[in-house]
Amino acid sequence: MPEVRDLPPLTGLYAITPDGLAGSPLMLAVEALLSGGCRWFQYRDKQAGPAQLRRQAIALNELCQAHGAALIINDDLPLALEIGAAGVHLGREDGALAAARRQLGPKAVLGASCYQDFQLARQAQAAGASYVAFGAVYASPTKPLAARASLELFRQAAAGLPLPACAIGGITLENAAPVIAAGARLVAVISDLFQDPGDLAALRSRAAAYQRLFEDLP
Q1: Which of 107, 116, 161, 177 has a 20 to 30 A CA-CA distance from 134?
Q2: What is the average pLDDT across 1-20?
Q3: Does residue 133 have a pLDDT over 90?
Q4: CA geometry: angle at 109 spanning 107 and 111, to 5°?
């Protein structure tokens, strides 16, 4: 994997791309979020084929790098390695974290889905994860059947894990503050950001509003 450049701090809004948004509309939407201050992006599209995933990932990685932001690839370690992305996010079914860390090297970001399980988060830390994700925190339009993660998980992580916890699932501007107060250092958002991906001014404004929620953190 190419040498990973300096990355922004692992905190703040973590924008995840929605299924089916591609080409110029996707690039313009991400650029608007970058203009609003978002510095962490995850490229996730369960509808795209391999060629489109690769093409979009390359373009998004170049755009993020140009703005001092970081692109994480969802579930696809070979693609992340090939394009020199900032890192990869893996779920329970996506391969061993320790093996991924060996391939990524020490500087790249390795995210791990830990669902509602604090012990899974401890195992992820031991395997070399950079951050752990708990969710769904709230009812999620993307995964409506997902089990719920309590705010107590974020308190446990803040007290007992030396790496950031990411909240995912149903996060909105209206409900993000309690989970941040409980200890989340990243909030992963899809639906609440991309309600209208063509409204670039709204995208910039929402990204900035999410970033402001983190301004007073220690």
Answers
A1: 107
A2: 85
A3: yes
A4: 150
As a whole number of angstroms, the distance between CA 166 and CA 133 comes to 4
Q: Are 33 and 194 in contact (CB under 8 A)?
A: no
The pTM assigned to this predicted structure is 0.94
Q: Calculate the CA 29 to chain-centre distance.
A: 16
Q: Are strands 186-189 and 131-134 parallel, antiparallel or unpaired?
A: unpaired
Site of tokens 């409204």: 199
Q: Is the pLDDT of residue 141 over 90?
A: no
| DSSP H or E run through 113 | strand 109-115
- Residue written as token pair 């080409």: 23
For the chain, how many residues are written? 218
**Which residue from 39, 44, 52 is spatially nearest to 12, judged by alpha carbons?**
39
Instruction: Decide: helix, strand or coil at residue 1.
Output: coil
Contact present, 74 and 43 (Cβ < 8 Å): yes
The identity of residue 46, as a single letter, is K
Judged on CB neighbours under 10 Å (0-12, 13-18, 19+), 143 is middle
Q: How far apart are CA 146 and CA 78, in angstroms?
A: 27
Dihedral sign of CA atoms 198, 201, 207, 213 in order: negative
Q: Which of 32, 11, 49 is nearest to 195 (CA)?
A: 32
- pLDDT over 70, % of the chain: 97
Q: The tokens 């991400």 sit on which residue?
A: 30
